[in-house]
Amino acid sequence: MEKLRRVERVAALTKLLTDMPGHLFSLGAFSQTFGAAKSTLSEDMVTIRQALAELGMGLLETVPGAAGGVRYLPNYSKERMQAVLDELAVKLSAPERIIPGGFLYMTDLLFQADRMARVGEIFRTRFAHLQPDYIMTVETKGIPLAFMTARAFGIPLVTARRGSKVTEGSSVNINYVTGSSKRIQTMSLPRRAIEPGSKVLIIDDFMKAGGTARGMADLAQEVGGRVVGIGVLVATIEPEEKLIENYLALLTLHAVEQQKKTIDIRPLQPDAALAE
Amino acid sequence: MEKLRRVERVAALTKLLTDMPGHLFSLGAFSQTFGAAKSTLSEDMVTIRQALAELGMGLLETVPGAAGGVRYLPNYSKERMQAVLDELAVKLSAPERIIPGGFLYMTDLLFQADRMARVGEIFRTRFAHLQPDYIMTVETKGIPLAFMTARAFGIPLVTARRGSKVTEGSSVNINYVTGSSKRIQTMSLPRRAIEPGSKVLIIDDFMKAGGTARGMADLAQEVGGRVVGIGVLVATIEPEEKLIENYLALLTLHAVEQQKKTIDIRPLQPDAALAE
């Protein structure tokens, strides 16, 4: 690479670091790429840290020692988190989202990359202290959100399938009862998907009674994982008693009134604790 | 926001621009956020453009006029593209990926966010001239890849489901025959997923005979879309005659030898045209 001026090098470093959240970059490798001394690069890092802090978007963590380096960790300020969730609540309140049967159409938003990137970074912000090794979800609609959460953490996503697939090798199956419709369903995960003993954070788009989340938690344990947290984008207020405890819902759906054409959905307050 | 020094402002601008590929930012809005003159910001853009070019990762496009602004477009240099595909081919050649029946285990790689981000940006680079309005895929394993392609373009993803779902409202169903196993399957898409007349780029993880891609193309047309291209991560060399034409495969699977425990998979050469 040609030798860059300082301001260009800072732009290039910002792009590389923020492109791979959680990935540890060695200053030595940067030093080679950019033909700059490590001390110079350390100053660049101070600059980037400052810029990210001003945006309220993330941290730059320095890991000391020979195997150390620097990594970008998405971390939202309370104001930024609130702004994202408020906007989502407004979008989801549009009456044209009501589907016959009192369901809420969310699919379009769930497949918008920029939006799901922000939600994933909010989950990273709220769940960072749990230090998960894997994000887990179940097909289909929750995948983009769970995937962007995995990206924000810099860890892999494992996706449970409904029924097992021949192209994924040996797998573990469990039966579970969906809490709302009381149907028995099957969910499976390839045996090789999770390293035994690792920490699993479950992410899904929607929770009513919590039967699907309960099934995922059981399946994760079945393949040797340890569930450290559960996050959902939207949880319904009813039933109050869910089949799981200690989940975090970013939005709460209070009511979908088909006759009155109103949707009552409310964002989490940034300081709120987990639902129990 | 506090007034930043130039180098901090460039870092912040790099983060904001590259976080939302394809999104048009107005210099006026940046001017307010950062308390800097538009002429100053234009100089910042020259710097960021230079840095991205040096990395071989993307372009910064300036759109003139009152409704104009600046946007980041992921665009890989040939060297970068080749490096990503070569690495993927090596990873996919590991003998432990062979699954009884001669299948290839790809799921772990398909759910790695950083890797799929790069593949999505390669699809953006190769398909930018088609100017699609939507990316389309079918559940499940292709979703992260298609989602990251949608992200690289800054456009929405629509995902066909196998069978129709009550929570997505009125939908269009088609039956299709999988080319390899000759089974009849159903695929559906919500009617409201695609604006009539819009351009659709189909992205999937794997293609054998092309029956699924053919089904997606038919379904896209059924809801009023126009298919402008098809991209797959891996296509098998056999059967040579696929059920669709003019697709782009980033990797070609020549053989999986269960006895010899070898996998022959080859990356696309960057200048190669579409398969016909």
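Chain A has a mean pLDDT of 92.
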